[in-house]
Design a protein that fits this description.
The protein has one domain. It is built from seven helices and three strands, in the order H-H-E-E-E-H-H-H-H-H. The chain has helices at residues 6-34, 44-54, 84-87, 92-110, 113-141, 145-183, 188-223, and strands spanning 61-64, 72-74, 79-82. It has a three-stranded mixed β-sheet with strand order 1-3-2. Strand 2 and strand 3 (79-82) form a beta hairpin. The longest helix is centred in the last third of the chain and has 39 residues, at 145-183. The radius of gyration is 20 Å and the shape is elongated. It starts with 5 loop residues before the first helix and ends in a 6-residue tail after the last helix.
């Protein structure tokens, strides 16, 4: 029903295309700079450990996790998990990703408010993101407007999550770039590679936010009569 609606394509297609392009770019950039070794020959895990210790975060643990670019920081356990390509590899790409995730640990330690907000709404997002489309479709098809609006409200939490994620990710990358530069771990040429890796990764979060906002607008227009024939 929704997929053949021209309005749906107008609102959803930009985010979809941007997402596909961003994913291709981040993979291409990461693969390119994964082949460029750092002059210090330090792995992502070693760089993350060094930066954490320099910031007084010796209590943050580093673990290897499976998957491609599955790197993340878990504020609940204070564990920084790095994928094998980052954890074990002494490359420019690994340095950038490891420093970025370390930036999230530093955000947590300093009480960076957007990160705190994002962490607080995670349970609501996990619950609402899967249930929201079902409630909306059922409510819309049965002309049960209240149920459809419940679906919209639940989906809105996912949109808020996507929007709050933007400053969280941008700030973590900025912290990573500054720390890598001030610590002298990388040369200026290597730092340029890190900037390209992190900037391309940031586009994936922008794409996710654009797609989420577009879908929310479509739901709202359907319910408010903005898409009546």
């Amino acid at each position: 029903m929704f997929f053949f609606d021209p309005l749906y394509l107008i609102l959803a297609l930009p985010g979809l295309l941007l997402g596909l392009w961003a994913q291709a770019r981040v993979k291409g950039t990461f693969n390119k700079y994964s082949k460029v070794r750092t002059s210090r020959n330090a792995t992502g895990a070693e760089i993350a450990r060094y930066l954490l210790d320099q910031q007084g975060l010796q209590d943050v643990q580093i673990e290897e996790t499976q998957g491609f670019l599955s790197d993340h920081y878990d504020p609940r356990t204070r564990i920084l998990r790095l994928s094998p390509d980052v954890y074990r590899t002494p490359s420019v790409a690994a340095a950038g990703v490891a420093a970025h995730e370390m930036g999230h640990a530093l955000q947590h330690a300093t009480g960076y408010s957007p990160l705190m907000i994002r962490s607080a709404i995670v349970p609501a997002v996990q619950f609402g993101s899967s249930l929201a489309p079902i409630l909306f479709i059922i409510g819309f098809l049965l002309n049960f407007t209240t149920l459809a609006w419940v679906g919209v409200i639940l989906f809105a939490t996912a949109v808020v999550f996507s929007l709050v994620t933007l400053p969280v990710e941008f700030d973590a990358s900025n912290r990573a770039k500054k720390l890598l530069s001030s610590s002298g771990i990388l040369s200026s040429q290597e730092s340029e590679g890190v900037n390209k890796v992190l900037n391309s990764a940031a586009l994936t979060y922008v794409a996710a936010a654009v797609a989420a906002v577009g879908q929310l607008l479509y739901y709202v227009l359907l319910l408010t009569g903005g898409r009546r024939d």
